[in-house]
Structure formats: structure tokens, C-alpha cells
Amino acid sequence: MGKIGQGILGGLSGKVGNVIGGSWKGIDYLRIKPTSVANPRTTGQVNQRNKFTVTLEFLQPNLAFIQKGYKNYAIKKTQFNAAMSYVLNNAITGTEPNFIVDYSTALLSRGVLSGVLNPNSNLATPGEVTFTWDDNSAEGNANTTDKAMLLVYNPSKKESISQLEGVNRTVGTESIIIPSTYAGDTVELFMAFISVDGLKVSDSVYLGSGTAS
User: Fold this and answer.
1) How far apart, in whole angstroms, are the C-alpha atoms of residue 131 and residue 121?
2) What is the pLDDT of residues 87-141, one digit of tens each?
3) DSSP readout, 138-179?
4) Where are the alpha helices (DSSP H) in the chain?
5) Which structural domains are found in the chain, ordered by start?
6) pLDDT tens column, 10-25
7) pTM of this prediction?
8) What is the enclosing helix (H) or strand (E) of 24?
9) 3-class DSSP state for residue 95?
């Protein structure tokens, strides 16, 4: 049985008839209980579920990166949900029902901070990935103290290794140690910058893929 607090215009908790009420992040909400679906596996529904699944599989291993990268988009939603929405709408490609993530458009961080200039990577050293970039700390709203955010994503193992507060923008290079079990796996590489106070981030950039040594 549902309860209505503070009179008829107050928040509803529970279910009254086909109306369900609750509260999330301090926001009262109401929704109608959905009617039963005669065919829950229409082509459109299957395609949407497949898109959702590939997006979820991509984002879950990169949660720590997303929590910093989507901080400014977590308005009445979590950082993860904001990233889910963006990737679903902007970075899913393929032919139904086999959808994939287009890494080049799948932003793992979004923000107004000046981005990465001429990023590159090197995977020649066993157990290590080296990121390089040019110093653009004098451009836009960049600062010399901005920190590198680096990510090595391993799709086959559905896990990632990240550095969320790396070296300063001016340094121009940093390496990440990766597990020896990554050797021979294809890894996907991403990078962004975050201000030293953590309030601003840049859009992430995709550096491409490579084979871990």
C-alpha cells in the first residue's frame, strides 16, 4: 500500500493503483506502472537491448574514469548514466542486431577544459604503455598544472587500467604499467586532462588500438 506524505500534493511512496511513487536524489517522482507487453521481443526492442548491452560492457570497466570525466554532467543523474546516454546516442554503430562501440566517438570524459594536442602511444615495451602529447598549456583555458588522465581498455578481458591524476600537461609523456596477462591482447587507448582542483575536464580523445607486449 502506498503512502502520501504532506497531503494530496505531497510525495507518494509505494504504489496506489497503477501509480508508483518514490524519491531519488531527493527528487520525488511518479510513474505509471507499465501495462504488459504482448510481444516483448520485437525487432526494435531487441536492437535497443543489444545496443544497451554493448554500451554497458564498454562503460562498466571504465567507471572510475567516467566518474571524473562526467562529473559536470551528473545533473539529476549519475555520471555513469550520463555516459550511458551519450554513448548510446553518439557512438553505437554496426548492422542490426550486431552493434559495436565506435571508440573514436565514445567520449569517456566531457568538458570545457582545453584538450590533448597531438597524442600518441607506444606499446613496444612489455608490460607498459607509454602516452605522449604536446604541451599546449599556453592555449585556451589550459594550465600547466592540468593532470593527464590515461586509460588502457582491454575489451577481451572487459577490464581497464587507468591513471586518473597523472603528470602535468607540460611533461608530455607518461607510462602505465599493464598486467603481463595483457600480452597479445588488443587494447584501446584513451586520454584526457583534468584541472588540478578536479572541477574541469577535457573531452577524452581516442588514440587508437594496439597489441600489448
Assistant:
1) 5
2) 999 999 999 889 999 999 999 999 999 999 999 999 999 999 999 999 999 999 9
3) TSTT--TTPEEEEEEEETTTTEEEEESS-SBTTT-EEEEE--
4) 43-59, 63-69, 79-90
5) 43-211 (2.60.40.10)
6) 555 566 566 677 766 6
7) 0.81
8) strand 19-24
9) strand
